[in-house]
Amino acid sequence: xxxxxxRIPDAVLSELTAxxxxxxxxxxxxxxxxxxxxxxxxxxxxxxxxxxxPGFVALADEIKxxxxxxxxxxxxxxxxVMKAWGEQQNAAELLMLGDGNAAFTKALxxxxxxxxxxxxxxxxxxxxxxxxxxxEFNLDAxxxxxxxxxxxxxxxx
Length: 157
Known about the structure:
CATH architecture: 3-Layer(aba) Sandwich
Family: Belongs to the peroxiredoxin family. Prx5 subfamily.
Oligomer: single chain
Enzyme class: oxidoreductase
Radius of gyration: 14 Å
Keywords: Antioxidant, Oxidoreductase, Peroxidase, Redox-active center
Strand order of the largest sheet: 5-4-3-8-9
Number of strands: 9
Protein name: Glutathione-dependent peroxiredoxin
CATH class: Alpha Beta
Low-confidence stretches: none
Structural class: alpha/beta
Mean pLDDT: 95
InterPro entries: PRX5-like (IPR037944), Redoxin (IPR013740), Thioredoxin-like_sf (IPR036249), Thioredoxin_domain (IPR013766)
């Protein structure tokens, strides 16, 4: 599992833009930037939609005022789902990225198999990444939402 002080693994995350599908190389996207990254088990799921994503939407300006260049939300969903969820949640200030095949999530060691309920998913976490290196890492216990929230991250910036 990824830890504070380690470099973020390289992988491809997808974004659906007005110009079409964009594939981002993670290391390139995060290079020379201060990034808040948070991951959710799935778009449109109850805790993710009612608390996790809305918290980052509500505090986006305050987080960016602390020198954060990007706030990134990742889920093991495709870019089409992530775009629709971001639009529904008014998440225009966030970068909504899909990890459709869970390659990034697995490279982090943060994958979770939910079986027939949803298959491979991500554990719930948030990270502060500076120039590709993890500086803060907040990992929630399975089925919990206690430390990966926006307010906790804001307090650590």
